[in-house]
Design goal:
19 helices, 4 domains, Rossmann fold, 19% strand, 526 residues, Methyltransferase, Cobalt-precorrin-4 Transmethylase, Domain 2, disordered N terminus, single chain, elongated
């Protein structure tokens, strides 16, 4: 829209709206709600290298994703080409998103793209984002302003347009104009930047900090002075992107660095559970400073004989008990109900047992309240709880819907107690693709995984099988966390002793166990 009127393509159709969105500094949760809404309805998304990949998961099915990232020191797309791509996409109609790291207008060249859109008669909007200095300030504790330390701050780019004959910076003024100075894109020029500040009157012992990957679990902060910061950064081998902060406020880093003190800060945790079931665990890990890698080692598929399951679902009301041993079993049971045009009334008059709180919660979503949820989330405890509830099980009919391959201990215990037990496969747990295991192998070989979280025996078995020869050696380099003793026993049998075993056999229990282990380890080092 230009001057209040919708522009038209050459063929008479309306051109698309372009949204210049700030994706924030790195942490995918720092994007604004407005930007997420625009992202979710976009037909075309042109995104930068520094955009967190999780944000692209918000794109609608069928959206065209175009990488136009630029990284220092690497071959990348020219700005003129990006402008042309934006205009071409808009002229095809629909909604176009330009997803940029940080804020579009703060050294993000968003204004150049906006100018190109105006010149082409393309309607656009700008959605601001959390700028990287704000994230670096919040996540390192280095408050850019402080009533006692700094009442002014300057943002300076260390990379200016190649078309300029000379630097636009007046160093004689810049060195002392503000109490805090933040340099963007200055890592490769760090020594010369600090020397210029000293040459133009800034004290050599002025505190300085370089922050790499601000707001991410890979964040690293190095502090020093104008004289020493260059050498310290080289020794730490910091990587781009990085911000440099100069001023007395750097002294706040040590007392206020809350993020880097989180118990799992910087730990890369491989989550092996199936797709769609790892979100809650991944979020809990992020909140504790970890970097979750959601790379399932198993896939959940329908049972080999879906008609057998359907037949038992139809006759579920004939049983005294229905036992559910996983969220997947619940999902498969009620998906079968839907296909057969049935509902929860098939369980009318039937007592229901759930192996744990997650399975119980999944049942509740379908309006079914579990009569029995044992305090210990394993098959033996379910059998004991049913016997405690009913007493005599002779001639009682029990339906167990579970994975196609599972432990036989619960059915055996119930049969030994006199019950007539039907075990019906509700789903299969298959190995992930060879490409997935190749990806995991590469990460392990590079030492890029600190912890592997196993949430079932099948996740352990499939990973070891998928990695093939040398799996045990690769996996021994990482810490192993198991959701409970059964999974820990499987891991040990395959040569992977678990250092962390959850006391509560849930994903949240695994996270809590990791935190407790990290705190004990830290206390031992103190």
């Amino acid at each position: 829209m230009v001057d209040g009127k919708v522009e038209e393509r050459v063929d008479g159709g309306p051109v698309g709206l372009v949204s210049l969105l700030g994706a924030g500094p790195g942490d995918p949760e720092l994007i604004t709600l407005r930007a997420l809404r625009r992202l979710a309805c976009a037909d075309v998304i042109l995104y930068d290298a520094l955009v967190h990949p999780n944000l692209l998961a918000h794109a609608k099915a069928g959206a065209e994703l175009i990488f136009v990232g630029k990284r220092a020191g690497r071959a990348s797309e020219r700005q003129s080409s990006i402008n042309a791509r934006l205009i071409e996409a808009a002229r095809r109609g629909g909604r176009v998103v330009r997803l940029k790291g940080g804020d579009p207008y703060l050294f993000g060249r968003g204004s150049e793209e906006a100018e190109a859109l105006v010149a082409a008669g393309i309607p656009f909007e700008v959605v601001p984002g959390v700028a990287s200095p704000m994230a670096a300030s919040a996540y390192t504790g280095i408050s850019l302003t402080h009533r006692d330390l700094a009442s002014s701050v300057a943002y300076v780019t260390a990379t200016e347009s190649v078309e300029k004959d000379e630097s636009a910076h007046d160093w004689s003024k810049l060195a002392s104009a503000t109490q805090t100075i933040v340099f963007f894109m200055g890592l490769r020029k760090l020594d010369s930047l600090m020397e210029r500040l000293i040459e133009h009157g800034r004290a050599p012992d002025t505190p300085a900090a370089v922050v790499s990957n601000a707001s991410l679990p890979t964040q690293r902060t190095v502090t020093g002075t104008l004289r020493t910061i260059g050498q310290r950064v080289r020794e730490a081998n910091l990587e781009m992107p990085a911000l440099t902060i100069v001023g007395a406020v750097v002294s706040l880093h040590e007392p206020l660095r809350w993020f880097e003190r989180l118990p799992l800060f910087g730990k890369r945790v491989l989550i092996t559970r199936p797709k769609g079931q790892s979100d809650e665990m991944a979020q809990a890990l992020r909140d504790l400073g970890a970097d979750p890698l959601e790379l399932p080692t198993v896939e959940i598929r329908p049972p080999s004989d879906p008609e057998l399951l359907a037949a038992h679902v139809k006759r579920a009301g004939e049983y005294d008990w229905a036992v559910f041993t996983s969220v997947n079993g619940v999902a498969s049971f009620f998906a079968t109900c839907a296909r057969e045009q049935l509902d929860t009334r098939v369980l009318g008059g039937v007592k229901v047992a759930a192996i744990g709180p997650a399975t119980s919660a999944a049942l509740a979503l379908h309006g079914v309240r579990a009569d029995v949820v044992p305090s210990e989330y394993r098959g033996e405890a379910v059998a004991d709880a049913i016997r405690a509830c009913d007493g005599e099980l002779t001639h009682k009919r029990i339906l167990i819907t579970r994975a196609e391959v599972a432990r036989e201990v619960m059915p055996r215990m119930l049969r030994d107690a006199g019950a007539r037990v039907d075990v019906v496969p509700a789903y299969r747990t298959l190995a992930a693709s060879p490409e997935r295991f190749a990806q995991i192998r590469g990460l392990l070989a590079r030492g890029a995984i600190d912890i592997i979280a196993f949430t079932s025996s099948s996740t352990v078995e499939r990973l070891v099988e998928g990695l093939g020869d040398g799996a045990a050696e690769l996996l021994r380099r990482t810490q192993v966390a198991a959701i409970g003793p059964i999974t820990a026993e499987t891991a040990a049998r395959l040569g992977l002793p678990a250092q962390v075993v959850a006391q509560e056999y849930t994903a949240q229990g695994v996270v809590q166990a990791l935190v407790e282990h990290a705190l004990r380890t830290a206390a031992g080092r103190a």
